[in-house]
């Protein structure tokens, strides 16, 4: 491909990049989308086989494009989400090139940008980085010397992938909780390291969590009102959608642990923070229920009481008498799954727009560098910015900003 020039370049061909293309086409702005692999690649290759989408079917949508389903309150497998994104791509018909990775993005003397790829350079007046928030799997090196099978949640596929024996899942966010439950249901002995988390109900007083977030306007909360917590809610769409309850996990045979803090000669040291972490998660949960109750009372909504939502199982022994050490050999642990989240990987951007942590400096997706934008990041402008159904609003705002540049 020879060097070329385009008005606006969109980097990333997932739902954010496709939605950006849709909004640019609506405004008649010439553009090109580059995707390093396939459309929606992370949905294809970085999800496990049994993953169910965490949002109910009725809430799944992209701009002017509805998600096909038979059960509005059900939850769909990853394959259905991939099909949906592919169908949306056919609907949008973006000018996209797949298998083209941008290896460097730099400014040029005319105030625009040059994107370097293996096929050549592309000059653009505007660039939208739509590569998503889940770019680099985070895996602490605590167990670097352990002779044991280890895999990040992004590389986990199913229980058969793991060697026989007990499994230690480190991280009890949405992925870690669902993977731990899947392994336990497959008959594996599971130990789950529970760190700080924000636990919320799947359903309460007749409605799904996502319905309450929208009804109360919480999903529209601007980033300026975001609190100090950076924890994502622990929710699940598995088994018809259930509230994640770690006491129930323990009752079903999963051993809860505190945070993994050190490792030496086959023995893991466990921090004495399990009770605190479970208690903080309970506090998030109780606070949300109270918020919903107050909202119902203020609006006079006809929603039946839900006392079962506040029922609490007894504290299990693993919580009241937590383990402080874990000998891998004596416990029969043969595999570790790191459900420790993701970080950004934007070092290919050779423009002074990243902070000391490698995160882009921007306001609602508009960077300090004229013509450079970001889309699809968590809390880009509001809580729902990284939701599948929320990226369209941010894309429209950025498309308007690009159009206003003339």
TrEMBL record:
It holds the Pfam family Pyr_redox_3. Keywords: Oxidoreductase. GO terms for molecular function: flavin adenine dinucleotide binding; monooxygenase activity. InterPro entries: Auxin_biosynth/cation_transpt, FAD/NAD-bd_sf. Coiled coil: none annotated. Signal peptide: none annotated. This is NAD(P)-binding domain-containing protein. It comes from Bradyrhizobium septentrionale.
């Amino acid at each position: 491909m020879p060097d070329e020039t385009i008005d606006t370049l969109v980097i990333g061909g997932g739902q954010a990049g496709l939605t950006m293309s849709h909004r640019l086409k609506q405004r008649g702005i010439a553009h090109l989308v580059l995707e390093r692999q396939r459309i929606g690649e992370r949905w294809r290759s970085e999800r496990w086989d049994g993953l169910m989408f965490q949002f109910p079917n009725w809430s799944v949508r992209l701009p002017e494009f509805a998600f096909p389903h038979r059960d509005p309150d059900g939850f769909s497998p990853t394959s259905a989400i991939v099909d949906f994104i592919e169908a949306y791509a056919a609907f949008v018909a973006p000018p996209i090139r797949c298998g083209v990775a941008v290896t460097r993005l730099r400014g040029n003397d005319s105030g625009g940008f040059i994107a370097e790829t293996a096929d050549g350079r592309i000059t653009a007046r505007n660039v939208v980085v739509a590569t998503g928030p889940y770019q680099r799997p985070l895996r602490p090196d605590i167990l670097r010397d352990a002779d044991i099978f280890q895999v990040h949640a992004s590389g986990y596929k199913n229980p058969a992938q793991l060697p026989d024996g007990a499994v230690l899942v480190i991280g009890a966010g949405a992925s870690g909780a669902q993977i731990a439950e899947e392994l336990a249901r497959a008959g594996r002995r599971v130990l789950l390291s529970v760190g700080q988390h924000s636990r919320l109900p799947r359903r309460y007083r007749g409605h799904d969590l996502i319905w309450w977030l929208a009804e109360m306007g919480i999903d529209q909360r601007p980033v300026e009102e975001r609190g100090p917590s950076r924890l994502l809610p622990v929710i699940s769409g598995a088994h018809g959608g259930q509230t994640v309850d770690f006491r129930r996990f323990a009752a079903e045979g999963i051993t809860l642990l505190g945070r993994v803090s050190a490792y030496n000669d086959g023995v893991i040291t466990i921090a004495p923070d399990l009770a605190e972490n479970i208690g903080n998660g309970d506090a998030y949960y109780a606070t949300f229920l109270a918020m919903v109750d107050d909202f119902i009372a203020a609006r006079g909504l006809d929603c039946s009481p839900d006392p079962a939502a506040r029922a609490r199982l007894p504290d299990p022994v693993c919580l009241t008498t937590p383990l402080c050490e874990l000998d891998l050999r004596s416990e029969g642990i043969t595999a570790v799954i790191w459900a420790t989240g993701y970080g950004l990987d934007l070092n290919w951007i050779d423009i002074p727009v990243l902070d000391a942590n490698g995160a882009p400096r921007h306001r609602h997706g508009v960077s300090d560098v004229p013509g450079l934008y970001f889309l699809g990041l968590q809390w880009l402008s509001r809580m729902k910015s990284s939701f599948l159904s929320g990226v369209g609003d941010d894309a429209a705002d950025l498309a308007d900003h690009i159009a206003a540049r003339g």
